[in-house]
Design goal:
Elements lengths: L2 E3 L6 H11 L13 E4 L1 H9 L3 E8 L16 E5 L1 H7 L8 E6 L5 H5 L8 E6 L4 H13 L4 E4 L9 H7 L2 H4 L2 E3 L2 H10 L3 E5 L5 E2 L9 E6 L7 H4 L4 E4 L11 H18 L1
Parallel strand pairs: 1-4, 3-4, 6-7, 6-11, 7-8, 9-11, 9-12, 10-12
Antiparallel strand pairs: 2-5, 3-5
Length: 270
């Protein structure tokens, strides 16, 4: 594996890592593969297990022993640099001594909706989720409860935001995820014969009164404003989580997780 020793903040590879972590949603038009930044040994291990292409690994001097824990591909470049240089590129308050640039998986609609072994896909559609921690938690819950994948509509934070990646605990590497417009997403879901339910805190059918065992898509809205009305109007119905306590609404990630659990519970009893 090629190994380079870096001593400058102006190193091109270090700049690449810094930009990938700071602006994960940027549009690369140069023809080069899109690379995402990940931080810490646990996420690097999860990326390798998921089969992601690891382009470059950054390790702080004195922590070289961490490399022995990974089966890195021979083409992966290794950059060895002082810890203060690596820390300057990372986003966490307590930076870890290893990070990497990886190629995100390229998911297709067939990955999301075309699995012949899954005749009743469960899909989450995220309309304007802005908190990366919420998005990461939703990804983790979606994988845990057997969702086929996730659609993100415009206004939703990038799933490769460092905080979202950490909150997903590696689910972002494995769970099919597609970013698309609302019109395209609804059309694709209807073509695949999914029933679409928009979440709401108002008058709607309780989740446990709706049959979620068939092909279903659940629309989860923005943390503050919920599902936008024009998008909600395209749904087949609305769904709510009854809350006996005196709260106005649930956190978006909590609400999504409860609905995923309810769908999983129903499907387990089918």
């Amino acid at each position: 594996m090629p190994l380079r020793i870096v001593q400058s903040k102006q190193n091109a590879r270090l700049k690449q890592l810094r930009k990938a972590l700071a602006n994960p949603a940027r549009d690369l038009r140069s023809g080069a593969p899109h690379l995402a930044g990940i931080e810490g040994p646990n996420l690097l291990q999860e990326a390798l297990r998921a089969g992601l292409v690891v382009d470059c690994v950054f390790v702080a001097q004195g922590a070289e022993r961490l490399l022995d824990s990974f089966k890195l591909p021979p083409q992966a470049e290794i950059v060895l640099l002082p810890s203060e240089l690596l820390d300057s590129a990372l986003t966490t308050e307590s930076p870890q001594p290893i990070a990497a640039l990886v190629e995100p998986p390229e998911w297709t609609w067939d990955n999301l909706l075309g699995d012949p072994q899954n005749s009743a896909p469960l899909v989450l559609v995220l309309a304007g989720i802005q908190d990366p921690g919420n998005l990461g938690t939703i990804l983790r819950s979606a994988e845990a409860f057997g969702a086929a994948g996730i659609l993100t509509l415009p206004g939703t934070v990038s799933a490769w935001n460092p905080k979202a990646v950490r909150a997903s605990a590696g689910s972002v590497f494995r769970l099919p995820l597609i970013a698309a417009s609302a019109i395209d997403s609804i059309a694709r879901l209807r073509e695949a014969r999914l029933r679409i339910f928009a979440t709401t805190v108002g008058a709607a059918e309780p989740a446990d009164h709706i049959d979620l065992t068939g092909p279903v898509a659940l629309l989860i809205g923005n943390e503050g404003n919920g599902v936008p009305k024009p998008i909600s109007a395209m749904a087949d119905g609305t769904i709510t989580i009854p809350c006996p306590g005196p709260v106005e609404s649930l956190n978006a990630a909590i609400a999504a997780s409860i609905l995923l659990y309810e769908a999983s519970r129903q499907r387990g009893h089918r």
